[in-house]
Amino acid sequence: MFHKLNHFICSHRLFQLIIGITFLLLSANLCVAQATDTAKSNGIQLQTVSPKVQAKYHSPRKAALLSTALPGLGQIYNQKYWKVPVIYAAFAGLAYSINFNQTKYIKYRNAYITSLDNTYTGPYSQDQLAILYKYYHRYRDLSVIGVCLLYVLNIADASVDAHLFSFDVDNNLSFNIHPTWITTADINHYTTGLSLSIKF
Question: What integer pLDDT is reported at residue 44 of this predicted model?
Answer without folding.
Answer: 40
